[in-house]
Design a protein that fits this description.
about 150 residues; alpha/beta; Ribosomal Protein L15, Chain: K, domain 2; 4-stranded parallel sheet; 3-stranded parallel sheet; 7 strands; elongated
Length: about 150
């Protein structure tokens, strides 16, 4: 037999005829049509709610609640003052400069905070959202200047 479109058919055993339910008791799927008796699942239009476990207390309600989100938390990207040694002396350092040099991966919603880790040997003009007291002291000791709205302890 030639391979033509008119002669194509599925391989034996690859297809099954669908079960036609509700066609009498003799069919094996008559009366309740395989849905059992009564209850939501026997009715048409039934959809199981997400997380529903048959009336058992769902897992998301059995587990204890943990933690909270502080809606007043500040979002600063931090960097140690010692990392600023990679920059040239006399530069003006702000969030965009730090990001362009790859020293920070992102700029926080509230800006950048410089912390006092490490030592600084180059004089820089630093203009960021926040500085720790020790970072400000190290910048001034190196001959630089700071321009930040507030300084606070680490």
């Amino acid at each position: 037999m030639a391979n033509e479109l008119s002669n194509l058919h599925p391989s034996p055993g690859s297809t099954k005829t669908r079960m036609r339910v509700g066609r009498g008791e003799g069919s094996g799927k008559g009366k309740t049509c395989g849905r059992g008796t009564k209850g939501a699942q026997s009715r048409s239009g039934y959809k199981r709610r997400a997380g529903f476990e048959g009336g058992q207390m769902p897992l998301h309600r059995r587990l204890p609640k943990k933690g909270f989100t502080n809606i007043f938390a500040k979002d600063y990207e931090t960097i140690a003052v010692g990392r600023l040694n990679e920059l040239e002396a006399g530069m003006t350092v702000d969030a965009e400069v730090l990001k362009s040099f790859g020293m920070i991966s992102r700029i926080g919603a509230d800006g950048v905070k410089i912390l006092g880790g490490g030592d600084l040997e180059v004089a820089l003009h630093v203009r960021v959202a926040k500085l720790s007291k020790s970072a400000a002291e190290k910048i001034l000791a190196a001959g630089g200047t700071t321009e930040a709205p507030s300084t606070e302890g680490e």
